[in-house]
Structure formats: structure tokens, C-alpha cells
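Lab notebook, bench 4. The sequencing result for the construct came back, and we need a structural model before the next group meeting so we can plan mutations. Quick request posted to the team channel:

Model the 3D structure of this chain.
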Amino acid sequence: MKVLILAEKPSAMRKIAYSLFEKPKKDFVNGVPYYFAYQNGNFYYVLSALGHLFTLESDEEFKYPVFNVKWVLKDESIYKKFAKAISEISKKVDFVIVATDYDIEGAVIGKNIVDFICKKPYKRMKFSTLTSSELKKAFYNLSEPDYLQAEAGITRHIIDWIWGINLSRALMLSLRKVSNERRVLSIGRVQGPTLYLVYLREKEIENFVPEIYYKIKVIIEKNGFFEFWYENKLKSFEEAKNIVNSIQYLKVESVKEEIYRINPLPPFDTTSLQVEAYSLFKFKPEYTLKIAEKLYLNGYISYPRSSSQKLKNVNPLPILFSLQKIPFYKNFVEEILKNKIVVYEGEKDDPAHPAIIPTEEVPELSKLSKHEIMIYDLIARRFLVCLSKPAIRKKYEIVLSFKNFKFFNTFYKTIEENWIKIYKKFLDIKEDIIPDLKIDEIIKPKLIKILKEKTKPKPRYTRASLIKEMENLMLGTKTTRAEIVKTLYERKYIEGEKVRITELGKAIIEIMQKYCQKIISIELTRELERKLDEIIEGKIKKEQVIEETKKLLLEILNEIKKNEEKIGMELLNRINQMNYGNKA
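Done. Here's the predicted structure in C-alpha cell form:
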């Protein structure tokens, strides 16, 4: 039998070929590289796609509504070249093994190539790492095609396409109706609600009225200088001043000591990795994913698009033995291996993949870029952390008083670092000197000070916290969220490290609020995500979800059509106030 093994990308193709076959040979077809090998009476070709070879397109003119959509081969010559190569090899084989990434997008990539190019029966390789051991296991335990996963993915692509193309055209044509403006405008199924989140936060900040309050701080000297704070916030300066004037001394009312555990952090899922990398390194979320993808394709970490914070069926021992070879992990691993291993996992799970963890194939760090080392180190340390013992800390709660006035402070000290030692370089752990105070001891304050403060609104989102909020609200997917935020920046709807909505972004949202509120509905988007899950579970058909979306879109588009001129004029007025030059 002749078999085609279809990888998602060229680097994955090479890993698969050298993992499955002892001495695969390399050749070219149509200028595209592939590997071949003869094993156990079968002849195998290993060939790669370039991610999605197909895209959605409509041949209808620039108008709306447009629902006539079809899959077509991407127009760039490189995609045509790879498609022709796959076609040539497919003619020679009896069977296809789809070895694309095991997720919804990988399922769509594989199914489209099989349906439109190979046209042969196929099965699926299911793996979470591009390591030799896991690839062999997947190869010898082929799965049935993940048809329902592919159906859900195809549904998402179609719905996002018809949603985005129709609403974006509606906005642009409304503008063109009243002017010669040819600005590129877009609004998508997830883009709209995400922009609305930024708009709501901006409105909250704009409308926030700060309240003034006063705090009282006392400083004492006792084996060092220590601050204590009055128990209540005070509304007036006079009230604070009266308290300060009445204090003659302070008595140590109580010293409570408590030993407590801090459990290790769980391993990373996609969002938590992006949030942590942004917090520590200021890496944009899409950049973090790009680096993680490269580490995955080299076999150094597990699949980076995962919703899981669990190790699932992963045996940590081979990974630990491998990490032990890297000098700055050696002592950590030895400490972990001294004890019975307990895995500290998070709540989030993923049906297809474990958390993002290192593999037993450790990299030569000298061959990685600086940023690749930073992300690998972050992932490796979180893996080691989740296998470590809890940290033991001690808390001292001390209360000083004068009559009915009480002043508080809490001090912390680490008794056993354990997992903290591994992750210390990324943490801001408070280690205090403890004041040597005895119950009923009388102390004369060195300083008593009144501080004027005011309440603050919630902070603006960062790229990372916006993605986290999208995840909390079920907007988009682990794969798409970073790209959606990136698109909002590119469209100049949002700006800044602390995310601000621009005047153009405000205009889009306020027009949507006035004429078609459903476009920015968070609940509507979440409802579709639930329906996509139901497709995967076999509870609902793709066609039903697409038809329901078309019906809803028609209602929205009819409303826009009625108000095209008003929408166009409002957009034009806002654009005239801005200096942007993002014209098509």
C-alpha cells in the first residue's frame, strides 16, 4: 500500500519523517520538498501543507448581503505550488494519514485538502508534541477522522466570513453613499463585542467621579522603622486631625502569628502564557504565540494552543530527567525527585491537549534566540513548579491601639521556599523584617501623618488583560483572540499600551448602538460558541447554525440599509475630525 502522511507545515513534516522512519529520503515534486520511505511492506510519502491552503471567497460584486461563499485555493503562487505537489503525490497513493495539528483548525486544514485535492480515504494522527515517541505512538494508533471537529471549524469560518464581509461592506458602503471616502472599515462577529468591552471601560473611566478620603499612617521604631495604618478611611481632614491630635502613645494590642501554605502555580494554558509573558517581558500576545509555535515545531514544548492547565496522561519523569541535563534546572529536578510527585493542576481543561509543558527533547540553548530562551524558560519553570512542594509562609498580624483607635499592619516571612525557589526570578515576594513587639508594650510614635487620597476607576485594559477578559466572556478562541486584538489596533480602533479606544472606534460602537445593537452583543457571540461546541458533540448540524446566522444577519443588514445615509454621515463627521490616513 502507498500512503501519504500530510503534515501542517514543512518543519513538522521533517520531524514526522525522521521520527517514523529510520532513514527517510528527501526529494522534490513541483519544487516542493517531501520525504519517502519503505517500511513494513508499505511505501510512505511525507508531505506538507502551508497551514490553510484554502480560504473562503465569494465571486459576487462589492455589495451586501452576500451569502454565496465557497472554499477556494489561496491565490498566492506558493500555495498553488504546494497544492499541486500534494495533488501529484495523491495520485500515487491509496490512503492518506492527516498529521496536522490536533485541534479545530488542524481538522479543517486536513479535511479541505483531502476533500478538494487528495480525494482518498483518510485517518488521523493524534499528538500533542512533535517528539519521536509521541509521533510513533500516534502513527501506530491512528484515529478515525475528526469529522465533527472539522464541521465545527468550517462552520466558524463560514459564519465569521459572512458576518465580517457583510457588516464591513455595510459600513464602507454607507460611508461611500455620502462621500468619496474609501476608508477600510471592518467589524466582525468577535471584533465588535471586543471593541465594545474597550468602549465600556473607557466610558467607565470618563464618567468616574473620584471621592476624596484620608488615611492615617504612624511610624514606630523597634529594631527598624515600621508603618501602621489606621483601620478606617476617613471622609474629612478634620476627623483625621482630631484622631492624630488625641494620640499620646500606642500600645501593642495583639500579635497574631499564622503559618500557611501557598500551593504551586499550575502549568500554562495559551491565555495564561500570553498574560504572563506580557506581564514579565511586555511581549505582545500574538508574538508570544509565534515564539511558542516555533518551540513546538522544533519538538521542545507541547502544543501551544491549549485551553488546559492539566498534565492529563503525561508522565512527567522522562521530562524531568531531560530537564536535569540543563544546568540551571538540575538542582530543582533533584529536589522534586526526592519526594513523591504530586501534580498541582488548574481548573481549565482541553479535550485534545495537555497544558503547555516542555518535552523530553530539550533544546541546545545556544541555538535558540534570546526571546525563545525566555519563553522556553518560563514554560519549563512553570512545569517544574507544578510538580514541587507548596511554599510555607508565616504571617504576623499586629495591632497597635490608643483607646478605641486601632492601627494595623501585616508582615510576611518565608519558612520554606520550595516551588517559589524555582519561580523566584518572576515573582515579587514580600519578605519583611518582623518588628520585635510584645503584648501590652507601650511605644511612642516617631511620626503620625495624614495622607489625602482619592478613589480610582478600574484601570484600562492591556493587550493581555483584554485577551483574558475575552476568554472569561467566551469571545473568540485561544487561537484567534490575539489576532482579533491585533486587528483592532491595525484598524486604528484602539491604541496605546494601556488600551484606549480611538475616536474612530467610538464612532463605530456608537453607530452600532444606535442602529444595530446586536452587532456588539457579547451574549450573541457567546451563544454561537455554545452552538459550535454542540456541533462537536453531535447535538446540532452545521447547516442549522449557518441558516440561523444568515437569518439574524439579514435582520441587522436590513436595519443598516434603512439608515445607510445617516450611518454614512455620522461616520464621515467623525473621520473628518481625525487625522488618520488609513484609506483603501
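The longest helix spans residues 147-178.
Will bring this to the meeting.
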